[in-house]
User: What shape does this take?
Amino acid sequence: MPELRIGLTVIGLAVVVLAAGCSDNGGGGTDTNNPAVVATYPQAGAVDINLNPLIQVWFDQRMDEATLDSASCHVAGAVTDRLEYDGAEKAVQLYLRELLAPETEYEIILSSTVTNEAGDPLTGDTSFAFTTGPMDCEHLEDYLEPNNTIDEPADVELVTAYPLLSSCSSDDEDYFRFDLLDTALVTARIENVYSEDAQPMFHIRFKRATDESYTWFTGWFEEGGSLNHRFTFLPGTYYLYTYNTSGEDRAVVYNLILQLSAPCMDDSLEDNDFIDEASPIGAGLTEGLRGCYRDRDCYSIHLETGQILAVTLDQDPDIGSQLVLEILGPAGSTLAGGIYHENPAVLSWAATQDTTHYIAATYWDNNVTYTIETDVMSTP
Assistant: This one.
């Protein structure tokens, strides 16, 4: 479960203790076994609430999760995406599937069929009313904010939908952190729920902790449409970055899910996606290499001033994959190379300094098998 971004310690004044519903432990014949609601977000009577809130209800006892569903706990007039129950917090979180209407009153409904772990029910049906604010960026800030930098990402679970997230200007960047226990192909699926532009442009990038990108994608999608971007990862911690370029105060509300599927098969020299992870090779033939979609393979080789490096990449078998082949300098700048459609791809470079150079190969198909042959020649 993701961290409770709107908790009792965070929303402060936005949570109210519902004293009238609490048990009376001082006697008077009150049944102390019946659970009670002690707080809600939004609180009862709250106004100017966001249009995409994470609805939360806290109880005074641990509840029977099986009795909490979209029938027994919901917002009247809204569509529920899912509920999550946190036993430690004694709280249920209600994710909505659609934006609430602006400047409209809604009610959180709790049925008396909701029980604690012992089977004792709430003392009766309960409701808590709140009113939404206007349709603007301020009232579309989502429940995973703040997550605008890689230093404060929102932790998300794989194969879990996060509905009604928002990006509401050209400087509203969203970062998400996820963990992989096994090698897998991760697809970031972004669904356009609401957009003020007919076809907003959206960026999707997978990153590592240094904020460097493994791969990136830019696309346009209309309301109701979706964008998908994928990459194969080894076990570890990674980051997803999304960015809306529609312009100032031009909102996009979107659903996010990170889907998993069978990975592209990496070779034994992975993980070598960046030059600081480059696999060292010498002159000669290196076989048994594999390329994955948008996966950059980096190799390091030392050259002396005046030496000429010739590189040949050969797909075997030749499946006609597009290839980006480059020779890079010590700082990662491109010295030579480009996009290749023919096979084999051949590239050369004359070194102007005595230092380590890098060869970078990026294919556009999964499970490309290839060899790399390097020849280092000295000039007369």
In short: Confidence is low (pLDDT under 50) at residues 1-31. The longest helix spans residues 8-11. The longest strand covers residues 184-195.
